[in-house]
Amino acid sequence: MKRIIIVLIALAILVTIGCEKQRTISGSSVTLPPLNLESVLPSLAPLDLSAYCDYISYLSQYDVWLIWKDNSAGAYQETGIDVEKYSGGWVKVATLPADSTQYSVYQSENAVGTQWRVKAYNLRGGAYSSVAIMK
Predict the structure, then answer these.
(1) Would you say residue 14 has pLDDT above 60?
(2) What is the DSSP track for the chain?
(3) CA atoms within 13 A on the CB side of 48
(4) How far is CA 130 from each of CA 46, 72, 81, 118, 123, rounded to the nearest angstrom?
(5) What's the pLDDT tens digit per position in 53-102?
(6) Which residues lie closer than 8 Å to 14 by C-beta, 6 or more apart?
(7) Quick count: other Cβ atoms within 10 Å of Cβ 64?
(8) What angle is formed at CA 95 by the lines to CA 53 and CA 132, rounded to 5 degrees?
(9) Are residues 93 and 60 in the same domain?
(10) Cα separations in angstroms, 18 against 11, 28, 36, 103, 132
(11) pLDDT, tens digit, for every residue of 19-48?
(12) Pair (61, 125) in one structural domain
């Protein structure tokens, strides 16, 4: 029980300091590293995912567009976005940089009815958007 309390106190000190400081603990001098609040918590799910599809006749292909709102910032900041398509199971089709809010791809097959989702993630975890069905 004492160890848990000591760990909680040490964590509270780290959170309170938030920068590199010199501290004296039991006569010993200790330098604490800066506290990076970025990506402390798992990323939040992207919001309002929409999926659209247009046929481009001169290319004989479909132009697929996904658009969403970034919902991760500060302590929830994502390090990347995964785009997934349902094809008998969820399959990752792209990895995008942090803060991305759209994805597009050309494909030969009709995409109407295809299910899509995006996942914002960081080292602590992540979350999926709602599923969008291609219109």
Answers:
(1) no
(2) -HHHHHHHHHHHHHHHH-S-EEEEETTEEEEEPPP--TT-SPPPPPEEEEEEEEEETTTTEEEEEEEEE----GGG--SEEEEEEESSSEEEEEEEETT--EEEEEESS--TT-EEEEEEEETTEEEE---EE--
(3) 7
(4) 8, 15, 14, 8, 21
(5) 888 888 888 888 999 999 988 888 899 999 999 999 999 999 999 999 99
(6) 32, 35
(7) 20
(8) 35
(9) yes
(10) 11, 21, 7, 36, 40
(11) 444 455 556 666 665 555 554 788 899 999
(12) yes
CATH of the domain at 120: 2.60.40.10
114 and 61 in a common domain: yes
40: which 2 tokens?
């402390």
Domain assignment of residue 17, yes or no: yes
| Shared-domain flag, residues 59 and 110 | yes
Tally the C-alpha atoms within 13 A of residue 38's C-alpha that lie toward its C-beta: 6
Asked if 7 and 70 sit in the same domain, the reply is no
Q: Say yes or no: 120 and 55 in one domain.
A: yes
